[in-house]
């Protein structure tokens, strides 16, 4: 499933409080979402040659991009500014029964991908996408070299547009937080209605990654690297589409 995460201005950044009122992830209750005709189509632009490296950071793995120029950009949707792609990472489960952080009508997905974008006009701020794991179609031949924690491998060409579903104009959006420390409540999430398929073999490659347990100092399989869901606390979830009208016969 595709999800985007977008930051606010520096002045709007609240303290990172785990018990705050705008924590993520959440469940997307379709019937309770509110159609917003002001939500625009998303506009993306990518340069595959700006891809730099893959890094196993012990929690997930990151594919990092050069974000010093407007080579990979995201605009439109609920955004008022342009964002540049910095990196993307993933969350997945030990089985295909769970793994995603966000759910739709309580439906779990095996995984999410979170590309991270930085707001161009700020020195801080971010915008992220969350997608399913179509990436591994292109990475299966290389994953063995970054299985171990802290492994960094040069990776000079990857077009992240292949992670997008065919329809990027139907999505939900809400204000939330990072799902990893410091859990800062400075994020606008964009969850795509259309998800992307991933094979069992591709998910198995993710589950072959290793991290070192701080408590036991032994290597373990990197699985279930997601945060539990948080209460919505009255936040509105807006949609760019009217699903019941679209799906009517």
Automatic annotation (TrEMBL):
MF GO annotations: carbonate dehydratase activity; zinc ion binding
Database matches in InterPro entries: CA_dom, CA_dom_sf, Carbonic_anhydrase_a-class
Family in the record: Belongs to the alpha-carbonic anhydrase family.
SUPFAM superfamilies referenced in this protein's UniProt entry, alphabetically: Carbonic anhydrase (SSF51069)
Domain Alpha-carbonic anhydrase: 1-241
Gene3D superfamilies according to UniProt: Alpha carbonic anhydrase
Superkingdom: Eukaryota
Protein name: Carbonic anhydrase Va
PROSITE patterns: ALPHA_CA_2
Chain's gene name: CA5B
Organism: Nothobranchius furzeri
Gene Ontology CC entries for this record: mitochondrion
